[in-house]
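wait is this the right file?? whatever heres the structure
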């Protein structure tokens, strides 16, 4: 009757330790997050610290959902970038736009979701669930974006990494004038040389202001193909260094696809040899059974070549609200792992692109 009982009971015994206020965040996660999605979060934390943050692993993060209005840009993403734990970013344009409010010292307030939005509209107040802010915040941010993008250096074709890097430089100067520091993803990414991409550059207020400038015959001309190839080049360079690639996915949506499609771009489209990302961590509240990308599992990603099938055990999905899980994950990583040297991949884009292009053209010549 015993059968393979010992195999199934080989896991660590659940021996909970009383929560007594004496432990730091990492200690609490290790001793109290023992099952269900609490354990998935513990597994994600340990995967990040024990493997993904090894020196030879390049980490890409994707940001979707309204993270920055809730302050997660400043509280979570900025510290991870400064510690060298995030090497490149794919974000919704909305996250980067609302991130600007903090660098411009424009106030967002805690409020309530139980409110009549018709009255808010009459009073000139904008709501993002329980975050409230003056409509003037949008107008002032729009004015900064347009004034910045009218500068001579923007008047050319470019990808979103260059767009955001240049915007980060202008925003860093404004932060210095206002006496605020380390408030924005864009300014921190600029200072650390971390490239920030947007998968849908027209789908945000930044893109809307780019479109306004286009009507006046000025401003940047965004070429998405640059972003597709540069992100593929980053992952290809990481794997051929030789090294490994990890993805840290907050939410899902278009940024999740963009950070993962690097591998199909390398393998399926360019025909270059690779095996998928090595490490996969996602925090999501989306279900897989609806067929949407936000809930798609890493096992499904294997079928597309996005995740290395041999590394599937090093893939964790945490079904939780990002506003809860992301600060805990960041705190664990910062407590348990020393800072890494920033790779400054923004400044290596040309080198990485040349390698990708050379190998692709060499493959074409062989046919």
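ok assuming it is, sequence goes like this
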């Amino acid at each position: 009757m015993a059968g393979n009982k010992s195999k199934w009971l080989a896991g660590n015994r659940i021996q909970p330790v009383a929560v007594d206020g004496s432990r730091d965040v990492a200690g609490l996660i290790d001793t109290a997050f023992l099952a269900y999605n609490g354990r998935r979060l513990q597994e994600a934390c340990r995967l990040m610290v024990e493997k993904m943050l090894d020196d030879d692993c390049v980490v890409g993060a994707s940001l979707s959902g309204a993270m920055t209005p809730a302050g997660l840009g400043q509280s979570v993403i900025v510290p991870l970038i400064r510690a060298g734990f995030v090497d490149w970013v794919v974000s919704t344009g909305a996250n980067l736009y609302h991130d600007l409010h903090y660098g411009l010292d424009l106030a967002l307030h805690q409020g309530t979701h139980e409110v009549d939005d018709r009255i808010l509209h009459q009073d000139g107040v904008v709501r993002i669930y329980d975050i409230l802010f003056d409509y003037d915040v949008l107008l002032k941010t729009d004015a900064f974006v347009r004034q910045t993008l009218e500068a001579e250096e923007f008047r050319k074709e470019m990808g979103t990494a260059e767009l955001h890097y240049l915007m980060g430089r202008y925003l860093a100067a404004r932060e210095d004038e206002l006496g605020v520091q380390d408030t924005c993803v864009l300014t921190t990414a600029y200072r650390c040389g971390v490239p920030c991409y947007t998968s849908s550059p027209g789908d945000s207020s930044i893109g809307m202001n780019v479109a306004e400038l286009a009507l006046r015959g000025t401003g940047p001309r965004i070429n998405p193909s640059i972003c597709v190839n540069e992100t593929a080049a980053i992952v290809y360079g990481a794997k051929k260094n030789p090294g490994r690639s990890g993805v840290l996915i907050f939410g899902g949506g278009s940024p999740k696809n963009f950070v993962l499609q690097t591998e199909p771009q390398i393998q399926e489209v360019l025909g270059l040899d690779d095996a998928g990302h090595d490490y996969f961590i996602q925090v999501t509240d989306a279900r897989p059974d609806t067929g949407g990308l936000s809930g798609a599992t890493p096992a499904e990603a294997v079928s597309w070549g996005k995740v290395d099938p041999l590394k599937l055990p090093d893939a964790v999905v945490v079904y939780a609200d990002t506003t809860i899980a992301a600060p805990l994950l960041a705190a664990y990583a910062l407590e348990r792992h020393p800072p890494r040297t920033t790779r400054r991949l923004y400044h290596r884009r040309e080198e990485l692109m040349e390698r990708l292009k050379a190998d692709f053209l060499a493959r074409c010549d062989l046919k």
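The CA atoms of residues 16 and 32 lie 6 Å apart. so i think its the right one actually
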